[in-house]
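Exercise: predict the fold of this chain.
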Amino acid sequence: MAGHSKWAKVKHLKGAIDAKRGKSLYKLSKEIAIAAKLAGGDPAMNPRLRMVLLKCRAGNMPNDNIERAIKKGTGGGETANFEDLTYEIYGPGGVALLVEISTDNRNRTASEIRSIVTKNGGTIATQGSVSRLFQRKGQIIVPREAADEDQLMEVALEAGAEDFKAEPEGYEILTEPGRFEAVHKQIESKGIKPEGAEVTELPTVIVPVQDEAVASVNRLIDALEDHEDVKEVYSNADL
């Protein structure tokens, strides 16, 4: 997603599903099938499947599509073997990008990602140089109208949340990745519906981007997100 803003990311996911619905649904279906193939079609027993189903819910993916994708993953037929990769990239203006990928052809994907990065003013970074600028956290976003601040803070912290932030747009709850599901379930059990919930990569260093560099960064991020093997693009750009 373009930029690090958590509020922009929620809007971006919903907008991307509407604007590029076919490709977005294809990517979600692919990730469901991969998750189901790796660890079964029961979300209660498959954390990876649970995570992608949260994205499906945020994007209003039809239940029929979800069921078909799960059946495809668990059907026992001959399906490709996918592996997960993470690319570390520097974009225009010194912006850092982490790109998560699932591919059944590492060499093909590597060539295509390198081409995208080069054509859009970026460079492939050395391993660890970008990932050190991010922290993996559970993140739950709740709009202000969905919950009382004191009640939500109490529920989240008692469930094991690491941090609670109240902002003009709403509330941000951060957890360690291993506590994300417990906190998320506890919040929803109180009838509070988050606007976004995922385990994500949060930047520890923000890079301001101005003027013509904004368009360049957005072009690179959009091109990466359009690639069918790309699952997530994390950025530390402040656009």
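Check your answer against the key: The helical segments are 6-19, 21-39, 47-58, 63-74, 106-119, 149-158, 180-189, 212-226.
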